[in-house]
Design a protein that fits this description.
33% of the residues lie in helices and 10% in strands. The chain is built from twelve helices and ten strands. Strand 7, helix 6 and strand 8 form a beta-alpha-beta unit. The strands form two sheets. The protein has a seven-stranded mixed beta sheet with strand order 2-3-6-7-8-9-10. Strands 1-5-4 form a three-stranded mixed beta sheet.
Length: 357
């Protein structure tokens, strides 16, 4: 049974120290006891939206492990609260914690559509797929309120520019009208993250995400509209969801996905501490076993930052995961391919309308 201390509705169960800050903020036991006796909350669990004003929005991705050249993130921080999320560490650059702050302090870039338009209209820019959500989910709950992602998709359509999307939220179907228009010109591909077929597991790992059934339905609806879908069965966590790889692959294939990708979980930076604290509270009966199996995939440590191996893992457990993935592709995805996006149209539309000469 989960610990009584478990904070429902959030992934992380505490705020870790920010490695870039000189001072450490801690809540003392006597203060917590005082709040309890007074019937007061020690801190608010509500999400705060904080506007920020970046100078640029499109980021070049240099990592050889990620599989994208450029990305953009309308939001920093993510209310989905996925406990394993590698993006947590980036919240420290903004002066926040990678723990609860990452889920409760969402930085909002309302100028993103204008910044994107400036970028792709630049005379030196040549069309390359820009991925929405290389870091944090562009369809997280904040999108219902701000609609920044939708406005960015309108920019991509206006300038006939290729765009990729990564999400685990069914909210992407709200923008089906724009996605269908983009797809007429082969300008969009969608990646839907599906990490488990068990709602119990999903609620623990990813507390504020769409249900598994909604995600599978999202894949189905997109596929029925001929919008190409790749399923991200990631991360695979030994002892939690790695045994589901084959049924997961079958499920996404049955619902229309053309391909799938995966990674083996890695707990770099502050995530190792956050995940370890979480699993001892959420799954105390198997905590040590899971942590040891993750270590077995990364040379005896939770933190692996080596290019080429950090997302694949190594050792027997990682090898078994990749062998199952190979089998799944042969069994469920034979003859299917995820199409290349169209890079040829954008240059004709840089001024907002097709050039005649």
């Amino acid at each position: 049974m989960p610990s009584k201390e478990f904070l429902k509705g959030r992934g992380a169960q505490k705020n870790t120290s920010n490695r870039f800050l000189q001072h450490v903020y801690e809540m003392r036991e006597d203060f917590l006891e005082f709040c309890r006796l007074e019937g007061e909350e020690a801190e608010s669990n509500k999400t705060k939206y904080i506007p920020i004003f970046p100078k640029t929005i499109v980021n070049k991705v240099d990592s050889p492990d990620v599989g994208m050249g450029y990305s953009m993130n309308p939001y920093q921080g993510c209310e989905h609260g996925c406990i394993y999320c590698y993006a947590r560490n980036t919240h420290e650059y903004w002066g926040y914690s990678a723990g609860l702050d990452f889920e409760r302090r969402i930085l909002v870039k309302e100028s993103a559509p204008e910044l994107l338009e400036t970028k792709i209209k630049h005379k030196k820019w040549k069309a390359q797929t820009i991925v929405l959500s290389g870091n944090t989910d562009c369809y997280q709950p904040a999108e219902q309120r701000f609609e920044i992602t939708r406005k960015c998709l309108e920019v991509f359509l206006k300038y006939r520019h290729p765009v990729g999307i990564i999400t685990k939220n069914a909210l992407v179907l709200r923008d089906l009208d724009i996605l269908k228009e983009l797809n007429k010109h082969q300008l969009v591909g969608v990646n839907i993250s599906v990490t488990s077929l068990s709602e119990k597991t999903r609620r623990k790992l990813e507390p504020r995400t769409a249900s598994i059934q909604k995600r599978l339905k999202t894949i189905q609806v997109l596929s029925e509209n001929n919008i190409p879908v790749n399923a991200m069965l990631a991360p695979m966590i030994p002892g939690i969801n790695s045994h589901e790889l084959l049924p997961l692959a079958k499920a996404v294939a049955d619902h229309g996905a053309l391909s799938f990708g995966l990674t083996v979980v890695r707990l770099n930076g502050a995530i190792g501490q956050i995940f370890s604290d979480w699993i001892k509270k959420a799954m105390p009966d198997r905590a040590e076993k899971v942590l040891h199996q993750i270590q077995d995939c990364h040379g005896g440590t939770l933190n692996d930052s080596r290019f080429g191996t950090r997302t694949k893992g190594e050792g027997k457990i990682a090898e078994q995961i990749h062998e199952m993935a190979h089998l799944a592709k042969k069994r469920y995805f034979k003859g299917k391919t995820f199409p290349r996006l169209n890079m040829e149209l954008h240059n004709q539309y840089k001024d907002g309308q097709m050039r005649l000469f």
